Amino acid sequence: MIPFHFPGRFRWLVFLLGGFLLMASPACMKKENYPVVPEISYQGFTLEYDSGMYATRGFLTFSFKDGDGDIGLSENMIQPPYDTGSIYYYNLFIDYYEKQDGRFVKVDLNPTLNARLPYLTPDDPNKSISGFISDTLPLNPMPVHDTIMVKFRICDRALHLSNTDSTPVIILKKR
Q1: Angle at the Cα of 35 (from 29 to 41), degrees rounded to 5?
Q2: Residue 3, burial from CB neighbour count under 10 angstroms (0-12, 13-18, 19+)
Q3: Smallest Cα–Cα separation from 11: which of 136, 116, 113?
Q4: Which pLDDT tens digit goes with each residue over 43-68?
Q5: In total, how many domains does the chain have?
Q6: Domain limits at 56?
Q7: CA angle 2, 6, 10 (to 5 degrees)
């Protein structure tokens, strides 16, 4: 796995190109066969605290697979359907939920936690890719409700939506 640093709120992004092994000859390369619709899977959520009692940032990590490698958007991809007025301007969709009166309620945040994943398509003839993505999420340092969860999914450039996954329950207050 190779760590990459991107501007914006992405703390780090790691991906493994499916079937690509350094120093391997083409005859030894194994071609991965993933579906063209991306698949994601929750891997972890880490909290960062300030000097107070509440978390100020969270780091969502999930794995992904995509058979044709069309994950991510370059900065100059702002023509339809990726223009700023479109839901597809973002390709990582994150829904935020707070536990209120014993049940989780979706809270519409402004600004949203949605993000644009950077262009990840490999130059290799085998476009199948898999790896891990970690996204930094700003959190309210003084929340009214200190128990949250997030649901998330990604979209590739062909506008295929992945499955939706979620975090377990997250407690924002230090115990």
Answers
A1: 95
A2: exposed
A3: 136
A4: 999 999 988 788 999 999 999 999 99
A5: 1
A6: 2-19+36-171
A7: 95
